[in-house]
Each structure stands twice: as structure tokens, then as C-alpha cells.
Write a structure and sequence with these properties.
This protein is α+β, with helices and mostly antiparallel strands and 455 residues long. The chain is built from 17 helices and 16 strands.
Length: 455
């Protein structure tokens, strides 16, 4: 088995918009170095000041160096058919694969990450950065943060790992079925292995244990794997992968509960890499208020963050259409509902908008009350779904139009008697948000056979 031990220096942290400034490749046959190639590379872009401060590579140094296209064939020849080895392998691999692809070469080799391998063979260390692991193993690094120095140190590290590997760990890592090649460098394999292929939610944690991403899945393990198999070169994806140090999960039994719990957890934890639900809020609503004369009125309004309304809508057109429909059905005043503003828009001479006396106001407030009730549903119902085991059912409770929580019930209890709403009081309580409300009412409409309604 031959290894190509690689280290590169770059202008930034992701391959999609940054370039390589230096590359060093050592060929190793498992016992000794059998070849070495190293060169500066002109990245075709400015090297940031802080990168120069870290690596010592200046714009003047690379000015006369070859562009990557001139050395691509040589690099591809050295890498193909060998095991690609690096400390945090997916970083170096993503850059070289991206640059080679731009030059017409498709790199597709086995990968071996010395971070992950060190975690396995030298467990329990406080840090597995190249500097720290080399300090622990008494490996001297010359020219730290230069491709040649770091690559040579990684060669020595690999040799010590090969020597330590009495149980064939490296061969296991290199099997096609192994996830070691795709898992982020800091994620313990056992975190991945204990994930089930069941519906539920999963959490990605950073180095301090803080949740940085929450997701839901029909099959948790399969979905988590898909995050890591897509080796995107974008900054967002590379930052995402670098931040993940742990994975946890919660089995929900069905996709509905997983959707609801995901939405709740995103709003509760505000994870760094969740964007869609974290930022989405309904933009428009129909609000209810009393004016200075005591008339109950309705109006359309663009909502502020966490603003409340009688009914919520994604567009002003939807909001206007619903308000006009309610106005016509309940014969409400167009001026007092905000549909129109001109005095002549109301043809009722006895309307409260024209007569401000107590009798007219009382009459109008009585007329608008059922309209408001129709907008703000007060229905109570329970949605039944599959549980976490074959012996239980999951249930979701909506009481007086508000989502209150979720729970699990033995099937024998569910089938033993006629159930009332009180039988579903044993729930884990959750706070409703607009995303949860949309999920629930869409599900209720599409799956009426799974709904128990209570008057």
C-alpha cells in the first residue's frame, strides 16, 4: 500500500473562491519515503495579510511561481492510485480535487485522516491539532505552517500510527463501507454508529457542546451521512464541517413529531447553521383592536418580529383576500375593516362608522365578534401517529386552536375506551410558533383519518 502524504497552504479556508500557494507531497510505501515533490504555486489572487503572517508566504514569493495548471498533471500523477493522507484530510483533498477538476483531472482516491486515526490509536488527548499531537509524540516540526514542514511532520506521525496499529485499524478505515473517510475530523465514530435509521431529529454540537445545527429525518443515520458525503467546496459547507465535534439524536417515531420538534428546537436553541426557520416569520396579519370610540376593528398589518395577529399570511394579497371575504360574509364595514378608507365606501347609514352613538357601536361589535372567531379558530383536536415502538402511538394535541404539546400512549390504552381530551393531557409542553402552526394545520387537512376532533 502506497501513501501520498499531503499538505497545502492556501489563501483562505474554502476551495470555491481561494487558491493554493504551496503544495508538498511525500510518497511512502508504508515503511519509508520513496518520493517527494514540493513547489510554491501562484494562486492568481492576492494573499491576505493574515495568511502571510501565519505562513510567511508573500505575494512577492509566488509572483514567479507556476500557476496550478502547469503542475496539475504532475500532482495528479503523484496522487492517483495512492492513499491520500493529510491531517484533516477533507480540507486538503477538497482544494486539490477542485483545482484538478478545473484542469480536467478527476481525483478519486481513498483518503486517510491522521486526525481521526490519532483519535482512534491515541485516545483521550486534549487536542489533536498537528502541533499538539506532534508535541505529545515528540515529533519535531520544522517550518511550521509551511507545506513542506507540516507534510514532513505528518509523515512521521503516519509512521508512528502504522507502528501503533496492531489491530488493522488503518485497513478498516480504508474500507469502502467505512465512514472514516467522510466524517468530519473531530466527530467520534461512535457518535455516528449509534444513530438509528428511524424518524427523529439530530443535533450537531461544536467543541463546547453547543448545538450548531438541528435537523429532522425519516432515517436519522442516512440523513446525517448525507451531510458528510457531499464534499462541497463552499465556505458555508467547509465552516459547517469544521465546527462539528459531536452528534446526538432523539427518536420521534414519525415524521410529523420530528417536524414539530425540529421547529421548536430551532426557535429554542437558535443554532448557528440553521437558517430557513430561524429567520422566517409570517410577514402579514389581520389584527384586532378597539379604537377611541370603543369600536372593535380589524386591519391588515405588516408584522414585526414575534408580532401577534388574529390570522397570519405570507403575502399582503392573501391577507387582503381573506379580510375582504370575511367582510362580505359577515356584512362588516369596509372602513372599519381597513378594506377601504373613503366615507362613501360604506353605504350603511346606520353603521358605527357614521353614527358614533353607543347603540350603533354595540350593534357593530356584536356583528364583528363571530367574524373574529371564524378567523381565530378555537377547535380542539388530537393527531395520532406511529410511536417509537410497535406498541405505542404518538399524539399531538391542539386545544382551543393552540398547539400545546406531544406525547406517547400505549396502543392498548388507545383502543380500550372512548377517549376524551383529558386522556391526552400527559404531554411534553411546547410553545407554538408560526412554522409549527402551518405544519399542524396542513397535516390535519391532508390526513383527516388521523385526527380526533373534540367539541
Amino acid at each position: 500500500m502506497w501513501y501520498a502524504i499531503v499538505d497545502i497552504e492556501t489563501t483562505g479556508g474554502h476551495a470555491a473562491s481561494n487558491g493554493i500557494t504551496e503544495v508538498s507531497i511525500y510518497l511512502h510505501d508504508g515503511e519509508q519515503i520513496v518520493g517527494h515533490y514540493e513547489t510554491l504555486i501562484n494562486p492568481g489572487q492576492h494573499i491576505p495579510y493574515y495568511i502571510t503572517g501565519l505562513t510567511g508566504i508573500t505575494n512577492e514569493m509566488v509572483m514567479k511561481a507556476p500557476p496550478f495548471s502547469e503542475v496539475a498533471e504532475r500532482i495528479f500523477t503523484l496522487l492517483q492510485d495512492n492513499v491520500f493522507v493529510a491531517h484533516n484530510v477533507n480540507f486538503d483533498y477538497s482544494f486539490l480535487r477542485h483545482q484538478l477538476a478545473d484542469c480536467g483531472y478527476e481525483l478519486n482516491t481513498k483518503k486517510l485522516c491522521t486526525v481521526r486515526l490519532s483519535r482512534k490509536l491515541f485516545p483521550g488527548l486534549p487536542s489533536y491539532s498537528l502541533g499538539n499531537i506532534c508535541g505529545y509524540l515528540d515529533i519535531k516540526i520544522n517550518d511550521r505552517h509551511r507545506a513542506g514542514g507540516d507534510a514532513r511532520a505528518t509523515v512521521t506521525l503516519l509512521e508512528k500510527l502504522i507502528e501503533k496499529d496492531s489491530e488493522g485499524v488503518i485497513k478498516k478505515f480504508l474500507k469502502k463501507t467505512s465512514k472514516e473517510q467522510s466524517l468530519p475530523p473531530h466527530v467520534p465514530r461512535e457518535h455516528y454508529e449509534r444513530l438509528p435509521d428511524l424518524p427523529g431529529i439530530y443535533y450537531f454540537h461544536d467543541q463546547r457542546g453547543k448545538v450548531v445545527y438541528v435537523g429532522k429525518a425519516k432515517q436519522i443515520k442516512k440523513r446525517v451521512s448525507s451531510h458528510f458525503s457531499n464534499n462541497s467546496t463552499s465556505k458555508q459547507k467547509q465552516d459547517f464541517l469544521r465546527s462539528i465535534h459531536g452528534i446526538s439524536h432523539e427518536v420521534c417515531g414519525n415524521e410529523l413529531v420530528a417536524l414539530l420538534l425540529e421547529s421548536h428546537e430551532i426557535k429554542r436553541l437558535w443554532p448557528q447553521f440553521n437558517r430557513a426557520q430561524k429567520h422566517y416569520e409570517p410577514k402579514f396579519g389581520i389584527i384586532q383592536y378597539s379604537d377611541q370610540r370603543g369600536i372593535t376593528r380589524l386591519a391588515m398589518q405588516k408584522l414585526r418580529k414575534n408580532g401577534t395577529a388574529v390570522a397570519y399570511f405570507e403575502s399582503l394579497a392573501e391577507c387582503h383576500s381573506q379580510l375582504r371575504s370575511i367582510m362580505e360574509e359577515y356584512e362588516l364595514c369596509p372602513r372599519l375593516t381597513g378594506v377601504a378608507t373613503a366615507p362613501e365606501s360604506c353605504e350603511n347609514e346606520d353603521c358605527a362608522c357614521r353614527k358614533g352613538d353607543k347603540r350603533a357601536i354595540t350593534a357593530y361589535n356584536k356583528k364583528i365578534a363571530p367574524a373574529i372567531t371564524s378567523l381565530a379558530t378555537n377547535e380542539s383536536f388530537v393527531i395520532l401517529e406511529e410511536g417509537r415502538t410497535s406498541r405505542e402511538s404518538a399524539y399531538v394535541v391542539v386545544e382551543n386552536g393552540q398547539f400545546t404539546g406531544m406525547g406517547y400512549m400505549p396502543l392498548e390504552q388507545l383502543q380500550s375506551k372512548k377517549l376524551t381530551l383529558d386522556d391526552f393531557r400527559d404531554v411534553s409542553l411546547y410553545r407554538e410558533n408560526f412554522s409549527i402552526r402551518s405544519i399542524l394545520y396542513n397535516y390535519k387537512e391532508n390526513h383527516p383519518e388521523r385526527v380526533i376532533s373534540f367539541s
